[in-house]
Amino acid sequence: MMRSETLPDRLRKLRKRIQRPFNAKDGGLDDVAVRAAYARWAPIYDMVFRAPLYWGRRVGVKRVNEFSGTVLEAGVGTGMALPHYSKHLKVTGIDLSQEMLAKAERRVRGGKLDNVDGLLAMDAGNLAFPDNHFDVTIAMYVITVVPDPVKVMLELERVTRPGGHVILVNHFSAEKGLRAIVEQWLERYASRVGWNPVFPKARILGRTHLLLEEDQSVHPFGLFTMLTFRKPRA
């Protein structure tokens, strides 16, 4: 009599099927894929993501509000975080998607957000700002949607003044378990959804001179993480 297949057996088989060499042509991210994905998302982005990303935005903005001076929000999207920055801050937002920026601009005008200095179409991996320009830079749910995350980290470091802070809020993938299997399966659809489900922290930690000061788990269910870095003064 043959033994019936158990759930662990089925999960092991699924893991073997999806742990194949990743072909960028199948699901990898590039600027074209990101622009196309977020052009599709723009009309419904707020409706779909307001609730799931609420806690991360809240924690990230609260952290930024503890500082003073100038702020860069890289990947500002539709500007959902903009109304929540303290008035003592001067905020600049950048995004690759013109469609998302158009919605952010309407939010700024409608909310009379005088502390928003500007919203610019720009690649987070090639920032058109001078060195040491901002007191704080923040990227929320961005680092997994860019083709070259290390390049983005280096740019955030470059435009942050010495002694300033770089803040990331993001999903980082699990190393094992059912969640890891699901994330690996979703990886093949990265170009369609516009983000990379398989993204361990190791891809960005230790790649710059930034010093990690805080690693905080964020709701819902600890699926997201806030990392706070400080740029050394020398």
Automatic annotation (TrEMBL):
<dbReference type="GO" id="GO:0008757">
    <property type="term" value="F:S-adenosylmethionine-dependent methyltransferase activity"/>
</dbReference>
<keyword id="KW-0489">Methyltransferase</keyword>
<keyword id="KW-0808">Transferase</keyword>
<dbReference type="InterPro" id="IPR050508">
    <property type="entry name" value="Methyltransf_Superfamily"/>
</dbReference>
<protein>
    <submittedName>
        <fullName>Phosphatidylethanolamine/phosphatidyl-N-methylethanolamine N-methyltransferase</fullName>
    </submittedName>
</protein>
<dbReference type="GO" id="GO:0032259">
    <property type="term" value="P:methylation"/>
</dbReference>
<dbReference type="Pfam" id="PF08241">
    <property type="entry name" value="Methyltransf_11"/>
</dbReference>
<dbReference type="InterPro" id="IPR013216">
    <property type="entry name" value="Methyltransf_11"/>
</dbReference>
<dbReference type="InterPro" id="IPR029063">
    <property type="entry name" value="SAM-dependent_MTases_sf"/>
</dbReference>
<feature type="domain" description="Methyltransferase type 11">
    <location>
        <begin position="72"/>
        <end position="168"/>
    </location>
</feature>
